[in-house]
Amino acid sequence: MADSTIQSIRVHQYGGPEQLKLEQVQRPTPKEGEVLVRVHAAGVNPVDWKIRRGDFQNFWPRELPYVPGADIAGIVEEVGPGVTAFQPGQAVFGQSANGAYTEYAIASIETLTIKPEKISFDEAATIPIGATTAWQGIFDNGKLQPGQTVLIQGAAGGVGLFAVQFAHWKGAHVIGTTSGKHVDAIRQLGADTVINYEDTPIENAVEKVDLVLDTVGGTTLAQSYQLVKRGGHLVTIAGAPDEAKAKELGIHVASFSAKVSSQLLQQFAQLIEEGQVRVIIEKTYPLSAAVQSHEHSQSGHGLGRIVLHIAD
Ligand SMILES: NC(=O)c1ccc[n+]([C@@H]2O[C@H](COP(=O)([O-])OP(=O)(O)OC[C@H]3O[C@@H](n4cnc5c(N)ncnc54)[C@H](OP(=O)(O)O)[C@@H]3O)[C@@H](O)[C@H]2O)c1
């Protein structure tokens, strides 16, 4: 019988990164439709620090204290009553239902799949939210078709780098924006044109496109409306869409919340096994350095996803 006390990061009150406390807690037990995962790695997403800061407390309150994070990769330790889809010992990745910055997490069998053998747990933890958001942004919301041109604003981010690769795989012409130091990396991922936002104003650099995926928000989102062809799509994951402006320009605008599913995770695993898609880790931190991982993520710059390496 394994020790029932585990280490978790918990947040007792909304606030700065210092609210991330490493604590001993009881190991959770999986219920019907759930498995318990021994977490080897957890992805650090911007939404994690937005929740921690209390940005969403009015419409998406958390019961305090809570364990932050959602992206996990690890080994199935135990399955809930009646679960046959997974077995103890399997290496998996997906979304946790009760937080990810912990040694053991609960995951629904609906948001979990088998980890591709060719990637590590740290690498697999970069996938769930980032790749799901990219896929649903460019295909489900953006309606991207082969031969069309897509502009990915924020191509180096944990969402953007998947969007570049999925669009390239689909046969679209891909343009990405990034800072100067990530230009070569984004080209290697399959972007046909890479624009360094530090020295090139975007409005001078591109013809109108079929789709813009905005992962940056602010002025980047505001400038993106003018870059879409009439009848084309602007999808933002980092700001509120301006419907009136879109109507005036004759374009579609949308925002959405990503929904992780086992089916999509399987699709990503297959693309990775086939060598069509690569993952990139910006930096790994130990669980005890969750504070630093959030400070890093909040800087808003980097190439790929920040990861908490929790077990070897
Ligand atoms: N709606 C949803 O379901 C959903 C899901 C996931 C994420 N999001 C949101 O989407 C945003 C991005 O998430 P993420 O995980 O990709 O973040 P991330 O991994 O932190 O990446 C942010 C990226 O933005 C780039 N960047 C910063 N300023 C830029 C600019 N002016 N132009 C172009 N690129 C710029 C940075 O690249 P450089 O280092 O090269 O500057 C960095 O790679 C966050 O606000 C997040 O909360 C929403």
- What proportion of the residues is helical, as a percent range? 25-40%
Percentage of β-strand residues: 25-35%
Count of DSSP-assigned helices: 10
What would CATH call the homologous superfamily of the largest domain?
Answer: Medium-chain alcohol dehydrogenases, catalytic domain
What is the level-2 CATH architecture name of the largest domain? Answer: Alpha-Beta Complex
Low-confidence runs: none
CATH names the topology of the largest domain as Quinone Oxidoreductase, Chain A, domain 1
Structural class: alpha/beta
Q: What's the CATH class label of the largest domain?
A: Alpha Beta
How far apart the termini lie comes to 21 Å
Instruction: List ligands, each type once.
Output: NADP nicotinamide-adenine-dinucleotide phosphate
Description:
The protein is an alpha/beta fold. It has two domains: 5-127 and 279-309, Medium-chain alcohol dehydrogenases, catalytic domain (Quinone Oxidoreductase, Chain A, domain 1); 130-255, NAD(P)-binding Rossmann-like Domain (Rossmann fold, 3-Layer(aba) Sandwich). 26% of the residues lie in helices and 29% in strands. It contains ten helices and 15 strands. It has helices spanning 46-53, 121-124, 128-141, 160-170, 183-188, 202-205, 218-224, 243-249, 262-273, 290-298; strands at residues 5-11, 20-26, 34-44, 71-79, 91-95, 104-108, 112-114, 149-153, 173-178, 193-196, 209-214, 228-236, 252-255, 281-286, 305-309. The strands form three sheets. Strands 3, 4, 5, 6, 7, 14 and 15 form a seven-stranded mixed sheet that branches. A six-stranded parallel sheet has the order 10-9-8-11-12-13, with helices on both faces. The protein has a two-stranded antiparallel sheet with strand order 1-2. Helix 3 crosses helix 4 (160-170). The longest helix is centred in the middle third of the chain and has 14 residues, at 128-141. It is globular, with a radius of gyration of 20 Å. The model has no long low-confidence stretch (mean pLDDT 97). NADP nicotinamide-adenine-dinucleotide phosphate (NAP) is lined by residues 45-47, 50, 129-130, 133, 153-154, 156-160, 177-179, 182, 197, 215-216, 220, 237-238, 257-258, 297, 300-302, 305. NADP nicotinamide-adenine-dinucleotide phosphate is lined by residues 45-47, 50, 129-130, 133, 153-154, 156-160, 177-179, 182, 197, 215-216, 220, 237-238, 257-258, 297, 300-302, 305.
